[in-house]
Amino acid sequence: MLRISKMTDYAVVLASHLAAADGAHAARDLALQTQIPEPTASKVLKKLARAGVVISQRGAKGGYALARRPEQIGINEVIEAIEGPIAVTECSDESTDSFCEYETNCGVRANWQRINLAVHRALSEISLADMAFPGTAELVSIALSGKDAERMRDAGTQSNDVH
Amino acid sequence: MLRISKMTDYAVVLASHLAAADGAHAARDLALQTQIPEPTASKVLKKLARAGVVISQRGAKGGYALARRPEQIGINEVIEAIEGPIAVTECSDESTDSFCEYETNCGVRANWQRINLAVHRALSEISLADMAFPGTAELVSIALSGKDAERMRDAGTQSNDVH
DNA sequence: ACATATGGGACTGAAACGGTCCGGTATATA
DNA sequence: TATATACCGGACCGTTTCAGTCCCATATGT
User: Fold this and answer.
1) A49 to chain B, minimum CA–CA distance in Å?
2) Which structural domain range is residue B48 located in?
3) Is the pLDDT of residue A110 over 80?
4) Is strand D within 7 Å of residue A26 (CB)?
5) What is the CATH number of the domain that holds B104?
6) Engineered SS bond to A73: which of A117, A128, B51, B69, CB 3.0-4.6 Å?
């Protein structure tokens, strides 16, 4: 579940790169700048475009640009663009849903939703803007700039122990 | 990254099952009760034992039991027992750490830590008790004894808030 | 001793992952 | 209009991981 695939890593790198330098950029340029093999970068960008994270412009002088402002794009969108819906179990698929033999199992399975939700929430609290500007990233628990602060407040109030 | 593997699903089911009925249980019995193929269940339980989530007793009358009380076991432990450390990128491995060519990439990679942290925290806030007793799942802070579990199991199968 | 039950690892078929390549289509520019 | 540019949609392939099974060694209660 929780091992990050290379493709996803690429996606975050590329999206963050776009966030840092706005405007349209060709896949080729992005690939060079991020040190990602060109065909692979292209593949990733296509998926991001399909998912609505970036918009594409075809033809000469075309390229990719973020679909929205970096602060308005959650990291979950980038991840889901590559990996599909987050943390689904077979049981939460429409097909075999509501078909468990033992109520204990079924109860457990229903609670996967809770896990999914928690993860989804945690990821959506992190925006591309947070990723694009490392300067403020180190200071997670200390001082944060305005927008970041608001976002972090809701995310991190429950408990701060990470053991 | 975020697709849950079957093994992990099994692990959660088995651990939750143990949480609901405390005491030692043989792998064989657990497999039957959870409808998980026996060799596979056995494999999963071994991993859980290795990770310290459950304790094992060998020999006749042996079996598996939770290592701690259900409320004290985070779901992240169960997941990590099967899948290893959560959400690592190659960059965050000791080997190639601190060796990025482009500062933008490096900044992004550093921010993976933030993502990892967010996910980890979200998961650690869900305990096995929450999974085992769906009815009282909202009340995270309330501790339950093993005996209460059986009572709850009958009553508490309906409160599935899927947000 | 003997039956029971876990520990560790080897092994296999199937699926996913990482990466590449190609033909098709849209578009800016000369 | 002709042409170069650049994205779109897949096909393809080698490698790795996943899911599942099986076997033998070891520990333990009766």
Assistant:
1) 20
2) 6-149
3) no
4) yes
5) 1.10.10.10
6) A128
List the single residue in B75, B106, B118 with the smallest CB-CB distance to A126: B118
In angstroms, rounded to a whole number, what is the distance separating the alpha carbons of residues B92 and B94? 6
What average pLDDT does range A103-119 have in this prediction? 72
What is the C-alpha to C-alpha distance for residues A86 and A120, in angstroms, rounded to an integer? 7
**How many residue pairs bridge chain A and chain B with CB atoms within 8 Å of each other?**
184
Q: How many domains does chain A have?
A: 1
Q: Is A1's CB within 8 Å of B6's CB?
A: no
For chain A, say whether B7 makes contact (Cβ under 8 Å).
no
Tally of CB atoms within 10 A around A71: 15
Chain A residues within 8 A of B2 when measuring between CB atoms: 1-2, 79-80, 83, 86-87, 119
A79 vs B162, more confident: A79
Among the residue ranges A113-117, A122-126, B145-149, the one predicted with the least confidence is B145-149
Q: Please indicate, yes or no, if residue B157 is contained in any of the structural domains.
A: no
B33 touches strand C (CB under 7 A): no
* pLDDT for res A105: 52
* pLDDT tens sequence across B115-126: 888 899 999 999
Contact by Cβ (8 Å): A70, A19 = yes
Is ipTM over 0.90? no
